[in-house]
Amino acid sequence: MAFHPNASVLPVRWLKASPSNPNDNCVELAGHAGTVVVRDSKDPDGPAHVHQPDAVGAFLAAVAADRLVPLA
């Protein structure tokens, strides 16, 4: 996984789920240069994690299907 050191300087439109916590405790996603970048909404100037679209799609599908396995 790669990182972009300052998510707020990326020329993207950040999206978050509409039922997000009203205190902004969520993650935001955006498309950038053929990848998907993810940032913590509480730290918009912090790093963005850079992922391949197919990996993000698989993760979101697993979340939607309740197939995530808790870490020990």
Explain what this protein looks like in three dimensions.
With 72 residues, the protein is of the alpha+beta class. It has one helix spanning 53-64, and strands spanning 2-4, 27-32, 35-40, 48-51. The protein has a four-stranded antiparallel β-sheet. The longest helix has 12 residues, at 53-64. It is globular, with a radius of gyration of 13 Å.
Fold blueprint:
Blueprint: E1 2-4, E2 27-32, E3 35-40, E4 48-51, H1 53-64
Antiparallel strand pairs: 1-4, 2-3, 3-4
The helix-strand sequence is EEEEH
**Poorly predicted ranges (pLDDT <50, ≥5 residues)?**
none
* Tally of helical segments: 1
Work out the radius of gyration: 13 Å
Structural class: alpha+beta
- Mean of residue pLDDT values: 89
| Intertermini distance | 22 Å
* Strand order within the widest beta sheet: 1-4-3-2
Strand content: 25-35%
Query: Largest sheet, described in full?
Result: 4 strands, antiparallel
By DSSP, the count of extended strands is 4
Helicity, as a percent range: 10-25%
Q: Which word captures the global form?
A: globular
